Amino acid sequence: MNPEAFLEAGIAIYVAMAVALSVWLGIFVYLWRIDAQARVLKRELERERQREQPASRAPRATVKRVSSPEHEIVEK
Amino acid sequence: MVQQMAQVGKLLIGLWMAGVTIVMFLVIPQYEGLGNAGRIIIMHVPTAWVSVLAFAISAIFSGLYLWKRNPTYDDYAVAAAEGGFLFTALATVTGMIFSQVVWGIYWNWDPRQTSIFVLLLIYAALFALRSAIDDVQRRRQLSAVYSLFAFVTVPFLIFVAPRIADSTLHPNCVFIQGSTCDGITLDVGKIGLLGDRKIQLIALEREGDLVTAEVIVSEPGLSSETTLRPSFNLATGTMADRPEFPGVRYQLGLEYVDPSITSGLLNIEAPGTGVLDNRITLFTFLASIAGFTALFFWMLNLRANLLGLQWALAQRDGGRV
Questions:
Q1: pLDDT tens figures, B63-101
Q2: Which domain holds residue A9?
Q3: Cβ of A21 and B305 within 8 Å?
Q4: Which of A6, B78, B174, B211 pairs as cysteine with B270 (C-beta 3.0–4.6 A)?
Q5: Per-window interface: B 32-61 vs A, CB < 8 A
Q6: Which of A16, A20, A28 sits opposite B14 (nearest CB)?
Q7: SS3 (DSSP) at B245
């Protein structure tokens, strides 16, 4: 097919529209995928943070020997 | 639930903009004198509008960062400035395409083109500034201050400068309410500048109620000259014949002639006047503005989130951003 046929008056407008729609579709898919990947990454980071936090937030207790083994002071 | 609604919203943006594109090409009528080229207004003006909005949002978040010192505000300020730069570039490119069709040249340093170019340079300098400073706190502070100063220039460069310039081909008087193309009043024999063209009023000849002007129009760069003969009807006080400038779709109009027939008001007549009077065109135009605005906010949020993630990852890995 002659490439110039795409530029004929009756067809050119449809060709221009198809190009514009393709560009928009490409941009949309690109944004959509990045958006999804960013969400996954954010979730993973949050999970990672939560995994790290329990150890630091666990109740701490120290045991002190005062006078005899029967008496213990427990600090929380 | 909120996330599902956001997903639906993003899908709607996709469909909305696809619909606007189809209507822009296939449904709205052609513009008188501009043909299909005039359809680009549906993309050109909304992208320019979104760029102003983006720069305003960037300035707001920059101010918030300087006030609260919250890094998230800096992320949003940068994301908005990047979005504004992108949409300004889009407005420039779509304007250049229109310029090629209507003025016969992609770029001719028209006041509107020059001011938008300066705006692009100002915001390009913001990104250069950010990339030149290693210290994160200092980078955020300086770019926030710069962004505030940069925004001060936006209203001037986008709204004021092109309007105060006497010789612009930008069709303000066609598309923007309240704008006027004043034209130029010349005595017979005098030379003046209309848009980017030198014109000389050679003669005014009266025949009944019709006054015809003989005007020599020089091409930009004075490469060639053409004689045009616009006319004015004294009885009705309206323009009669409006010949086209050579190679472009703008017309030369004789808008007024003084009673002694010694001087006349010559002006560029842009085809497509009243283009937004058409209901379908107006609604498509508004739909495009809404679509581009929604798209910008999606991009803003996404980019700011990505910057936040980048920072969080760098913190975790002990690296630098």
A1: 999 999 999 999 999 999 999 999 999 999 999 988 787
A2: 3-75
A3: no
A4: B174
A5: 36
A6: A28
A7: coil
